[in-house]
Amino acid sequence: MTLTLNEARDLLLARKAELTELTEISENDRATVTLDQQSVGRLSRMDAMQRQAMAQANNRQRARELQRIDGALQRIKEDEYGYCLECGEDIPEARLRVDPAAPYCVSCAKLFG
């Protein structure tokens, strides 16, 4: 079965919506940790700071994935979707089904991905 551009666009837009929702949900976890020693013990503050750092790292990862998705959506508009950005060869359909935002074929992904 061939992955159509409409199917790819739908997969990309669904993933983009999911990432955007996760970003909104985790907004409180990324906020500055209040260091009120009266209400929170030292270990609780350290735990809160660790949770904040993890939430910020997850947010950066989501932002990178959103950039990849936007790039793939742009390649769909420009009729360049499904071709490796490095070598220009077709990206295998199985790879695009797993990761519709994949910008490289398997060989180039090992080198540049």
Oligomer: single chain
Q: Order of helices and strands, N to C?
A: HHHHH
Helix content: 55-70%
CA-based gyration radius: 19 Å
- In what range is the share of β-strand residues? under 5%
What number is the mean pLDDT? 87
In DSSP terms (H or I, runs of 4 or more residues), the helix count works out at 5
Please provide the count of β strands.
0
**Which structural class do you get from the secondary structure elements?**
mainly alpha
End-to-end Cα distance, whole Å, is 26 Å
Can you summarize the main beta sheet?
none
* Contiguous uncertain segments of 5+ residues: none
Any idea what the shape is? elongated
Quick recap:
This protein has helices at 5-25, 27-30, 42-77, 93-98, 106-112. It has 113 residues and is an all-alpha fold.
Structure characterization notes:
The radius of gyration is 19 Å and the shape is elongated. The longest helix is centred in the middle third of the chain and has 36 residues, at 42-77. The protein is 65% helix and 0% strand. The chain contains five helices and no strands. It has helices spanning 5-25, 27-30, 42-77, 93-98, 106-112. The model has no long low-confidence stretch (mean pLDDT 87). The protein has 113 residues and is mainly alpha-helical.
Give the tags.
elongated, mainly alpha, 113 residues, 65% helix
Write the layout of secondary structure elements.
Blueprint (H helix, E strand, L loop, with lengths): L4 H21 L1 H4 L11 H36 L15 H6 L7 H7 L1
